[in-house]
Design a protein that fits this description.
CATH superfamily of the largest domain: Metallo-dependent phosphatases
Shape: elongated
CATH topology of the largest domain: Purple Acid Phosphatase, chain A, domain 2
Number of domains: 2
Radius of gyration: 27 Å
CATH architecture of the largest domain: 4-Layer Sandwich
Helix content: 10-25%
Largest sheet: 9 strands, mixed
Structural class: alpha/beta
Length: 651
């Protein structure tokens, strides 16, 4: 199939875009016309089947997500510009409950249109590329989905075994655009796409023996010279890969900065990291990155968040130089669909585009039914009423799912022989959110939306390698949730530090330990070592033996923790795998596979016994009455204030 083509004219929202076949173009501008032109490039990325502004886990509207909202920004951005082109940068077929409903419940047969593609087809996408999550449901599902795309897709670094292209590596488009004087010019625009080569590891079961993925920069060096033979005026790289510094070693997951060094590429649209560029703090201080202007080694680049949270806008000033047009200047803006006020309220900045919303409403309604239906059974109740003072089933189920998931991934790596531990925190544990903010799932049917009660945040799985010493220090940092209890005092002493976020109280499963709250916390609230001689973690053991400080372990956690969130020792610099899945998706799949779960706490950690005279108290929900877990000695002692119930530890 020829890679030279024309953008197609579309109707509905597409009517505002100047697109025409070359046979119908006006005559080319003469030499006397001005040689300046403006071209607006628009980007979506990491949509992850988020069309409707809705959180299926909370079963509530959500103004922070949805292509139906991004579409109104697209429409406005096109109306402001004479010339514009819209691109998608991948990860569109998987990631929301709507996507899981199609893949796991409804299915996608040949000839059927995936709701995400239906929504995208309602917009004037010029071209797109694949993300790593496009492969999560297998090649047959992917082929069925892409067959109904009404816009071309490109990918240069993935081939079928045997050398056949999965998709065209690049396309050359001929398009008529209007210069600043109103004259028409035909521009040749090359578009090339890339995906992280780690798909072969992340989706080994689906892709092994069927596809081959190569290094992004190597693929660019192979295909860009071929593209340049057609003398394009502009080459746009759709790079479903993030921005990271450091020396290039090959096979990078986040290779956009290295890709920017490839001669012939003029613009880079990035994604995959679920971040915003320019402006995101993660990109400060990286050599070659201008985090204000929005460039990688001087070339315009953008990364517009995820789930439709932003529309990427790159405004190019083009000048005619000889027979070809070149980028003279540019402006980059990731435009949000909402803003968050200082008091954390959400203020919508975009309306819903009805034409896009309408394409998915039937499947949206079916997804709501799917989310509300049981997907498994829990033989034991799952609640977090006592999660801050005892091992807890709401954390246990996370640990079990994460360990099962990580063992499968680690089996394909050099770390396969290392013991796998799990770090997880009780997210819903009262506190400032009030006495209703607890997980409380009764024994019996469990629905997918219940997973939001267990795992509140849309984190992704990451895996780190640590030593026994680092496991100990990780737990010491976590133990900062407790106030120091004076064993000589008989007066009431609150056990929990209300200023310590519950999401930083990591429990590590796979080891056993006690927490001595009579010791001072080694770390302050910011994770700074303040009491070097204090040791709250005692009797730390692995496999029944005192832990070897030099031994190495794999700990499965989330992207927040692995990127330094909470300033936990040993996490930020030891990431060995950035997995492609959400932690709560891992839990859902674990329940689907098990059918019946029984997440009973195994009491791998306890608070070390206190003298009988000590009156250490904590508060929880009144709904905790009669639900004190086995192994915890605690009794209700009255009103805790602000709607909470007060309990006292007993020894």
């Amino acid at each position: 199939m020829s890679r030279e083509t024309h953008f197609n004219r579309r109707d509905t929202l597409k009517a505002g875009v100047a697109i025409a076949a070359s046979v119908a173009l006006p005559a080319l501008a003469t030499a006397q016309t001005p040689s300046k032109m403006k071209l607006r490039l628009l980007e979506t990325t990491d949509l992850h089947v988020n069309v409707v502004p809705y959180d299926y886990f909370r079963d509530a509207a959500d103004d922070t997500v949805g292509l139906a909202k991004t579409a109104s920004l697209i429409k406005a951005a096109q109306a402001e510009a004479k010339n514009s082109l819209l691109f998608d940068n991948g990860d569109f077929l998987q990631g929301s409950s709507l996507g899981d409903y199609i893949a796991y419940k409804k299915g996608l047969r040949p000839g059927e249109t995936h709701p995400m593609l239906a929504a995208m087809n309602a917009l004037p996408y010029a071209c797109g590329t694949l993300g790593n999550h496009e492969f999560n449901y297998g090649l047959d599902f992917l082929d069925n989905g892409l067959a109904k795309a009404e816009f071309p897709l490109v990918c240069a670094n993935v081939e079928r075994v045997g050398g056949q292209a999965l998709l065209d590596p690049w396309r050359l488009f001929e398009q008529s655009f209007e210069d600043e004087a109103g004259n028409q010019h035909i521009l040749k625009i090359g578009v090339i796409g890339f995906v992280p080569p780690q798909i072969m590891q992340w989706d080994k079961a689906n892709l092994d023996g069927r596809l081959v993925a190569t290094d992004i920069v190597d693929a660019a060096n192979r295909h860009v010279p071929e593209l340049l033979k057609s003398a394009p005026d502009l080459v746009i790289a759709l790079c479903h890969s993030g921005i990271a510094g450091g020396q290039r070693k090959g096979m990078e997951e986040n290779a956009a900065l290295h890709l920017a060094k490839v001669d012939g590429i003029d613009v880079i649209l990035t994604g995959h990291q679920h971040l915003v560029f320019p402006g995101g703090k993660a990109f400060d201080g990286i050599d070659g990155v201008d985090n204000v202007k929005g460039s990688l080694h001087g070339k315009p680049a953008c990364q517009p968040g995820f789930w439709g949270s932003h529309l990427g806008i790159i405004d190019l000033d083009l000048e005619k130089r000889g027979e070809r047009w070149r980028v003279a200047d540019f402006k980059v803006e990731p435009k949000p669909i909402y803003e968050r006020t200082p008091d954390r309220k959400i203020v919508p900045k975009a309306a819903i585009e009805p034409l896009v919303l309408a394409t998915v409403m039937v499947d949206h309604e079916a997804t709501l039914v799917y989310m509300r239906e049981p997907v498994g059974m829990t033989a034991s109740p799952i609640n977090s009423f006592f999660a801050l003072v005892a091992d807890d089933p709401s954390v246990q189920i996370v640990a079990e799912a994460q360990i099962a998931y990580a063992k499968g991934l680690m089996a394909q790596t050099p770390y396969k022989a290392l013991p796998v531990l799990s770090a997880a925190a009780p997210f819903k544990s009262g506190g400032r959110a009030g006495p209703a903010f607890f997980t409380d799932i009764p024994a019996g049917p469990i629905a997918i939306k219940n997973v939001a009660d267990i795992y509140l945040y849309p984190n992704t799985v990451q895996i780190v390698k640590v030593t026994g010493t680092q496991v100990r220090e990780w737990l010491e940092r976590s133990a900062g949730v407790f106030n120091r209890i004076d064993p000589a005092k008989a007066d009431e002493q609150p056990l929990i530090n209300p200023g310590f976020p519950a999401f930083n109280f990591d429990v590590i499963d796979g080891v056993s330990y006690k927490i001595d709250v009579t010791q001072a916390s080694r770390y302050d609230g910011d994770g700074k070592l303040i009491a070097p001689d204090a040791h709250r973690i005692v009797d730390l053991a692995f496999d029944g033996q005192p832990i070897d400080d030099a031994a190495e372990f794999i700990v499965v956690t989330n992207n927040y923790r692995a990127s330094g969130g909470g300033n936990f020792p040993g996490t930020k610099t030891t990431v060995v795998l950035e997995a492609p899945d959400l932690n709560r998706d891992v839990i859902v799949r674990y329940i689907l596979a098990k059918k019946t779960i029984e997440p009973k706490a195994d009491n791998n950690w306890v608070i070390a016994p206190l003298p009988a005279s000590v009156n250490a108290t904590f508060v929880t929900s009144p709904a905790a009455a009669g639900k004190v877990p086995d192994g915890l000695k605690a009794e209700a002692v009255g009103d805790g204030g602000d709607g909470f119930a007060k309990y006292r530890l007993r020894n």
